[in-house]
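Notebook entry, structure prediction.
Reason for the run: the old model in the group folder had no record of what sequence produced it. Starting over properly, with the input documented here first.
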Amino acid sequence: MWGLPCLSGVFGDCLIRRKPFNRWNLDMSRVCQFTGRKTHAGNQYTHRGKAKYLGGVGTKVTGKTKRTFKANIQTVTAVLPDGSIKRVKASAKAIKMGLIVKPLKRKYAYKPDQQG
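New structure, fully documented this time:
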């Protein structure tokens, strides 16, 4: 049984059932299958005024708007640990870190030692 305990503490057997996490079977969009990066929420602040280090009296916040920070997710062809080749969604950071193993681009019809 998978789940999280009930936060209220009133019901002892209150569990939220969830499926086990399988990172190779993700159908969600904009989620990296290697690092788990995804879209996060935040705020965009609007300022007015001149900064103190530039000789002003300082900046003031005049507005705060909700916004989303989206991860740089790319769809790449990768070799999975079981040896199969599949298109997966990976963040640019995972690609730079070398977490992605890419397959060979071509399958040649001959081997180099069999040339005539």
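Summary: The longest strand covers residues 60-69.
The old model has been moved to the deprecated folder.
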